[in-house]
Write a structure and sequence with these properties.
By secondary structure, the protein is an alpha+beta fold. The protein contains six helices and 14 strands. It has helices at residues 45-62, 98-104, 133-138, 144-167, 211-214, 220-233, and strands at residues 5-8, 12-16, 22-27, 30-33, 38-41, 69-72, 77-81, 84-85, 88-95, 111-121, 130-131, 170-182, 185-189, 197-201. Strand 6 and strand 7 (77-81) form a beta hairpin. The structure holds cytidine-5'-monophosphate. Its EC number is 6.3.2.6.
Length: 234
C-alpha cells in the first residue's frame, strides 16, 4: 500500500492509498484536552479507539446509517471512504455535562427531555467556538441542505447509539460527530470512541471516557477497555 500522509490530527493520521476514493486512518496513542493544552500518551488508546469505532460504525451500518467506514485493516488502521470533512463539530447532549454545564452554570447529570443539538466551528486557532446554523451558512462551512441532512442523521445516530450503549450498561451523556462530503451527500466520518463520547456506567455513573484524562481521575485506559469489552459482550 502506498502511504502518503495527507493529514495529521491530535489523535489520528490519514493516509492516501493506491485506490482512488479510499483513505487509511491510523489511530495514535496521543491524548489532548482543552484544545491541546493538556497532552499525554496513553498506551494502546489508538488500538482501543479503532476497535470501538469499528464496532459502532458496523452497528450503525446494520441500521442503515452510512459512514466513511469500509473495514478495520489492523489494530490501529481503518480503511475509509475518502470524504471531504465538513469543518463542523456536531455535538449532541442527552445529559448535562462538560462545557454546557460550565457555560450555563448548571450541574452535571440533568437528563434532558429532548436531545440538544450543537454546532461548533472546527477551528483549533479559535478554540472550536459554538455557532448556529446561520453562522455556519454565512461563513461557508456548509449549505442549509447539508446542515439539515447532518441534523437528521445525527438524531437517528443518537437514538441508535443510546440503545447500543444501554445494552452495554452505559449511559450516552454526550458526544461529538463529524461528517464528510462523499458522492454528492454528507455521511458520518471521523470516529466514535471514549475520546469523543461521555459514557457513564448505568448503575454507578462511573465515568468511562476521556473525562478520566481531562480531570485526572486515573486509570484512563481501564475505562476505555471496559467500554470495548462491554460492546463486544453484548
Ligand atoms: O467539552 P464539551 O462538553 O463541549 O464536549 C461535548 C462532547 O463532545 C464530549 O463528549 C466530548 O468528548 C466531545 N468533544 C470532542 N471533541 C471536541 C470537543 C468535544 O470529541 N473537540
Amino acid at each position: 500500500m502506498n502511504k502518503e500522509m495527507l493529514y495529521e490530527g491530535k489523535a489520528k493520521k490519514v493516509y492516501k492509498t493506491d485506490a482512488a476514493g479510499e483513505y487509511v486512518v491510523y489511530f495514535k496513542d496521543d491524548a489532548t484536552a482543552f484544545n491541546g493544552v493538556k497532552k499525554d500518551t496513553l498506551a494502546e488508546k489508538g488500538i482501543l479507539n479503532n476497535s470501538i469505532s469499528s464496532i459502532l460504525f458496523e452497528l450503525l451500518a446494520k441500521e442503515g446509517v452510512e459512514s466513511h467506514f469500509i473495514k478495520k485493516l489492523s489494530e490501529r488502521e481503518m480503511l475509509v471512504k475518502a470524504v471531504e470533512i465538513v469543518q463542523l463539530e456536531v455535538i449532541v447532549r442527552n445529559i448535562s455535562a462538560g462545557s454546557m454545564s460550565k457555560r450555563l452554570g448548571i450541574e452535571e447529570g440533568i437528563v434532558f427531555q429532548e436531545p440538544i443539538f450543537e454546532l461548533c466551528y472546527k477551528n483549533d486557532a479559535l478554540g472550536d467556538p459554538l455557532i448556529n446554523d446561520d453562522h455556519a451558512v454565512a461563513i461557508g462551512l456548509a449549505t442549509r441542505e447539508e446542515i439539515a441532512q447532518i441534523r437528521e442523521q445525527t438524531m437517528k445516530i443518537n437514538t441508535l447509539l443510546k440503545e447500543f450503549f444501554k445494552k452495554a450498561g452505559l449511559k450516552l451523556v454526550d458526544f461529538k460527530l463529524e461528517f464528510g462530503r462523499y458522492d454528492g451527500k454528507v455521511i458520518l466520518a471521523d470516529e466514535i470512541s471514549p475520546d469523543t463520547c461521555r459514557l457513564w456506567d448505568i448503575e454507578t455513573n462511573e465515568k468511562m471516557d476521556k473525562d478520566r484524562f481531562r480531570r485526572d481521575l486515573g486509570n484512563v485506559m481501564e475505562g476505555y477497555k471496559k467500554v470495548l469489552q462491554r460492546l463486544e459482550e453484548k
